[in-house]
Amino acid sequence: MSTLSTLEIAQLRSDASAYLPDTCTIQVKTNTIDAIGGWATTWANTYTSVACRLAPMLAQRAEAMVGSELAVVTNWVLTIAHNQAIDETMRVVHDSETYEVVQIEDTHSNRTAKRVYLRRMD
Question: Contact, 77 vs 103, CB < 8 A?
Fold first, then answer.
């Protein structure tokens, strides 16, 4: 098995970035205590203008109860740079739509990009 050199990996990462045609914002959640002792959640636009590509997972569509209403849940795959910070506590805003981070695939060797599995309630 041959391994790639540092230069080869850098070139592959540069090539991969050419296939990230969109931008998104990655938001970080902050919980604070509100005036009556409960929790208030806010979202900060921590990473903005992040190069990305978003694609639907068409076979991954379901329905879920949200409160007392039935919502359609759609699943998506976000591709971002291999070293972009993101985790399951964050969310993504792309083209004015907000997505919850479900899972991150970033443990393979010689990573050239990071894949993030998202869900959106419609």
Answer: no
Q: For 54-109, what is each residue's pLDDT tens digit?
A: 999 875 556 666 667 777 888 999 999 999 999 999 999 999 999 999 999 877 77
Cα–Cα dist 113/17, whole Å: 8
Domain range spanning residue 60? 6-121
In total, the chain counts a number of residues equal to 122
pTM above 0.85, yes or no: no
Q: What is d(CA 72, CA 92) in angstroms, rounded to the nearest whole number?
A: 18
> Within a 13 Å sphere around the CA of 2, how many CA atoms are in the beta-carbon half?
5
Inside any domain, residue 29: yes
Helix (H, G, I), strand (E, B) or coil at 9: helix
Is there a domain that residue 54 lies in? yes
72 pairs with which residues across the strands? Answer: 63
